[in-house]
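Troubleshooting: if your tokenizer reports a length mismatch, compare against these two reference records.
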Amino acid sequence: MAATKKNTYGDGVDWIRGSIIGKGGFGSVYAATLKKNTENKLRFPSVMAVKSSEVSVSTTLQKEMEIMSDLKGSPYLIECFGHEATISSDGTFLAYNLLLEYCSGGTLGERIKKSGDKGLPESEVRVYTRCIVRGLYHMHGAGYVHCDIKPDNILLVPQVNNSASFTAKICDFGLAKREVRNFKKRRITRGQNWQGTPMYLSPEAVRDNIQEAPSDIWALGCVVLKMLTGKPVWEGDTAGEIINKIGAEEELLPDIPDYLSDEAMDFIKCCLWRNPSYRFTAQILMDHPFLDGLTEDGDSYRPTARVMFDRPFLDGLSEDDDDEDSDSEDDSFGDSYCFAKAIVDDLSLYSYM
């Protein structure tokens, strides 16, 4: 049943449903405001985004709720305040609702479109990229893969101390899944078809139906390239044409314009190795020079989740060394990037080099 009126899914105990602000494959999203007489003003913000679908087809939303509960604690992932069932305005069905953080800045995709396909200033891209990297680090450390990183799944929230600047937050966990970290099990369970948006799919997703943490990093590289250029990462009139290019035996790669800064080009290259074993991790990318010197949301936040790797190229980069003379954890993050970069510079497998 399609939702066409604002009250099709009904109001909540503490909130009133407003106009529709978005619609996807798994539900419609509405703005919602708290009722004046509610006793839960401390539990909910005054404005929320409510993602709804009929209970009979709400399996994905319920799964999303479980995943978001597991991922609490990162300011770079959209916050979930709970869930609630409502009765439709005509009393004919029940609706399942996720109560989510409202992001008044809209989506990153909308922000890119406003640039007129010219791309965003690099200074702005760096801010959004750091937020996304930190969000992915938290997700991957908790054992989850997003599987659909793209501009439309990144929301912008005005910063508390500067309403003209935004923090980027990852949203829409409907396709997210537990990461399979054992390579043998990964090969056994890869029979399912890929999920996500063709433009941002990794080669291993297209060829082998494998979507793990490196696939999110590939998508991140595509998102950064899209932000900087304003243009599609791949040329193609249909999803099939794009899929064929990504999975091509010639091992094609997206074009990176030479007018970008050296740091921006290198960051994108670190994400777009066709072999997922050579892609940098979110942990290492946090200390890439492209993200240096950013202090707009403070430097105190450092995700606590640890990332375990089964990729040969990155062995030894995820855990602190046992050397008694090792430096602090913060220093180890910078060291891991330098070490990984040194190895990359010695490899001849990278098509961009």
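Reference record two:
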Amino acid sequence: MIVVDGQLINNRSCASVERHWRMAAGSVAAVNRGVSSKSDVAMVPLSVLACFALLALAGATEVLQCAGENYENLSDNVQLSPCKKPPCKLKKGTDQHVVITFTPDHDIEEVKNHVSADVFGVNLPFVGVDGNSVCDKLETENGEKATCPLKAGTKYIYKDSFPVLSFYPTIDVKVHWAITDTQKNKDVTCFEVKAKIRS
């Protein structure tokens, strides 16, 4: 649940925005034809753009370090399926999968996702993904079920999947994905990747 421009956004509100996504798709098409501008696209409600859950994931994916960070072997520890080399093509109507391997350097009580996308220069959270706890979706490197709290020096594997809905606009985005220690507000791991939503 988030608030964008004073509007409360949750999973229920996102379920009823198909017509707005079609409006967004029309705005994107207008920009591509050169008959519109960013200001025209900005008229699409931010609450609509915020309801835009995507990302994914497949064998090791070439991803970028987040600004100011330098995680060792980052690309070897991120799998977006199906995507090995960006920009990742997110096909509408399919499920996308993510596998992130990380090793905390300190004990952690709880970790959550921080997932956002750069859409026309505006940073928007992914509703249904951003802010979610990942504690119930963890395994050890031996494939055993794991949960919080996490132990320093232990390797964990986070696995999840998300739908790319058919009414999403055809659009290019840059996705920022971090797993964050909620108590210290510190990223345990973080990556960025360019993506294209396609039919």
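Descriptive notes for reference record two:
- The chain has one domain: 53-198.
- Residues 1-21, 36-58 have pLDDT under 50 and may be disordered.
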